[in-house]
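Narrative summary of target 7.
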Amino acid sequence: MTDGASSALSTFLLDGSPGAETQAALSTFGQFVGRWRLQWTGFNPGREPDRAVGELAIDWVLGGRALQDVWTVPGRDQAATGAAPRGFYGTTIRLFDPTIGAWRSTWINTTTHRVRRFIGTAVNRTGICGGSVSWFLPR
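Modeled conformation, tokenized:
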């Protein structure tokens, strides 16, 4: 692959933001577009939690029809603490499906080779539930 091919993929992938007609529905995750520093905690029964500082980047992809995020835990310049840190490096593609009124998501973890698919919906404007995975947003 040449540098030109890599640039071409970025150009196609990171192409656009959602149209005005879909922005309200897409704001559940769309509000997080940007680059974030995060504190991750992995809970282990019978042990102290693993902790790490990580990075998260989120942007519109595929003509504004989907969101993609990239997680790096621990961050590229950080070390994890705790017994056997369970860091990860992965990505999620999310798209809003208006026929079910929810987000369809696919998570790919390149360190564990795990792929998870789930459906997420907003909960009381402060949470997002996706089956066994939930996110809660600070007020």
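The chain has one domain: 3-136.
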